[in-house]
Amino acid sequence: MESKSGSECPLHGNGAFPDYLVGRRLEQVVASWHLHGSEAPSGPLDVWLIDSETVATRITTGSDWCVIVETSRPFAGYDMAESGRVEVAATSGETPFADHLGDTVLAVSEESCPDSGRRVLEITFDSGRVRCETWSGGLRLSSK
Q1: Is 8 a member of any domain?
Q2: Residue 123 to residue 26: CA distance in whole angstroms
Q3: Best exposed site among 29, 89, 91, 121 by fewest CB in 10 Å?
Q4: pTM for the whole thing?
């Protein structure tokens, strides 16, 4: 994987290069979830990593299936009437990032495609790695 790839998403641009996370400690993880009736939540739709410098880094997917990385504060949840609702809350174990709370980011890397920009963001902690990727238009998080 390469960091700071020259590949740019035609719809969303390059977004933030997450290199600034290196050396910072992960203090909190906030995520948004789509809830509909009694169905299990899908998602997360978005994940915000709050670091030791109190910067909130949002990781999500774009409509063209790119992985978007930007600095932004978590937004409030909202109701979508018959389509359900989106809830936004701090997570305790619902994402692979929970295993790395209090750990320092050692490295970040990304994979991209020439026509659609960033497809994968991988964040390495001293305790392991979390891979953030787009899968069928949704955000998929996994631990390594």
Answers
A1: no
A2: 11
A3: 89
A4: 0.87
